[in-house]
Amino acid sequence: MAQRQQVLYLWLAEGALVMPVVAWAFHDGSDSEGPGIPDGDPPYATGEAALKDGWMLLQTPHVPRVEKGQEHQPAYLSYEFVFERRVEIAP
Q1: From CA 26, how far away is CA 73, in angstroms rounded?
Q2: In what order do the strands lie in the sheet with 80-89?
Q3: What is the pLDDT at residue 72?
Q4: Strand, helix or coil at 4?
Q5: How does residue 9 score in pLDDT terms, banded at 50, 70 and 90?
Q6: For 1-91, where are the E strands, in sequence order?
Q7: How far from each other are the two terminal CA atoms of the chain, in whole angstroms?
Q8: Where are the alpha helices (H) located in 47-89, listed in sequence order?
Q9: Residue 54: how many CA atoms within 13 Å on its side-chain side?
Q10: CB-based burial label for 57 (10 Å; 0-12, 13-18, 19+)
Q11: In the chain, count of helices (H) and strands (E)?
Q12: 3, 31, 37, 50: which has the fewest C-beta neighbours closer than 10 Å?
């Protein structure tokens, strides 16, 4: 069996894994031969739920620095968590 990587990005409302997911992206290196992600938008309610489903946490966000007066300006989503799992596929 060969292994392939699946990557899940979850952007949370704040910097703790128990906070709600506000955006997400899924990249499947197994070409859909491995398990999918749960149906729904988003697939997990929190980052902690992804951990409990077997995803491995690769990266946590750094604390965003916001200049005074810029708190409500559009910007990149700050609280990005990156998860991965390795899946077995037929060679």
Answers
A1: 27
A2: 21-28, 2-12, 80-89, 56-59
A3: 79
A4: strand
A5: very high
A6: 2-12, 21-28, 56-59, 80-89
A7: 6
A8: 47-52
A9: 8
A10: middle
A11: 1, 4
A12: 31
